[in-house]
Amino acid sequence: MEISSAVQLQELCSSKKKALPEIIAEYEAFRASKTTEQVRKDMAQILAVMRSSVEEGIKDKGEYAHIVKGYGVRVKDAIGQGKLLGDGLLQKVILYSLAVAQHNASLGRIVACPTAGSCGVVPGALLPIAEELGSTNDELIDALFVMGGVGIVSASQGPISGAEGGCQAECGVASAMAAGAITYLAGGTNEAVFDAASLALQSHLGLVCDPIASLVEVPCVTRNATSAVNAIVASNMVLAGIPAVVPFDETVAAMKAVGRAMPETLRETSQGGLAVTPTGRRIFKEMRRKYSLEN
């Protein structure tokens, strides 16, 4: 059995009369030669690592990072001092997503979903929503399987790496995965799940991958926060009845085509975009001198 499209996933749900998380859990069990109970335990462990990366990231001062230092600490302090705009949910989404991405930059343990560079998007969007809704662990695990389903479709049809498709393929797909998961958690239908995923990805089309000094730090860490917020915006629009218009499968195909059209300089090579600004070049030279990499 191979799952390659959102349409196929929805048809499987209809024909087998099973919920989306059940179908995806069965698919993962088949691929891993495990029982569905075992893969649910695996997903529970993934959830635990996500929560831990948030907690550790909030405390992480960036000792092992090169450019980003204590982004979670700064946001937590700013929240405590009443400096930030927006309500508690928005502030928590920013805090969680930045904390996880900071933890990744500091060599901490994270969940790559779909990549390490976009690791803060799903936990940053999903965990605050789950806390607001009072979701149980089992409900969160179901939502994570839905997240995985969006990821499976994305990886099957298009790239999920910055080197192949730009940051649209990393933060964009992560935002789509998060949007699908939180839409499911909020009671959305299967169609709503993939509409939200489509809207989230549509807003990322053309996003380049341009890490300064070849480090997954700037602008990667802060993009995690904006992509997490984008996921919630996409979910809310769909829950309000706003259509994606372009189905998710077609949006993924468009992302793939855009990625192919991108010059190599904008696909994780650090040869374009922010990486070659005067500041980007200066930081690159500083890193080379610091680590004795000069020719």
What gross morphology would you assign? globular
Q: How many helical stretches?
A: 13
The fraction of residues assigned to DSSP E strands is: under 5%
**What is the straight-line distance between the termini?**
52 Å
Structure commentary:
The protein is globular. The protein contains 13 helices and no strands. The mean pLDDT is 97. Helix 3 packs across helix 5 (88-105), helix 6 runs parallel beside helix 9 and helix 9 (171-185) runs antiparallel to helix 10. The longest helix has 24 residues, at 36-59. It has one domain (6-270). By secondary structure, the chain is an all-alpha fold.
Produce the secondary structure layout.
Elements: H1 6-16, H2 20-32, H3 36-59, H4 71-80, H5 88-105, H6 121-133, H7 137-157, H8 162-165, H9 171-185, H10 190-202, H11 220-239, H12 248-261, H13 278-290
Helix pairs in contact: 2-3, 2-7, 3-5, 3-7, 4-5, 5-6, 5-11, 6-9, 6-11, 7-9, 9-10, 9-11, 10-11, 10-12
Summed up, what is this model?
The chain is mostly helical and 295 residues long. Helix content is 64%, strand content 0%.
What would the keywords be for this entry?
295 residues
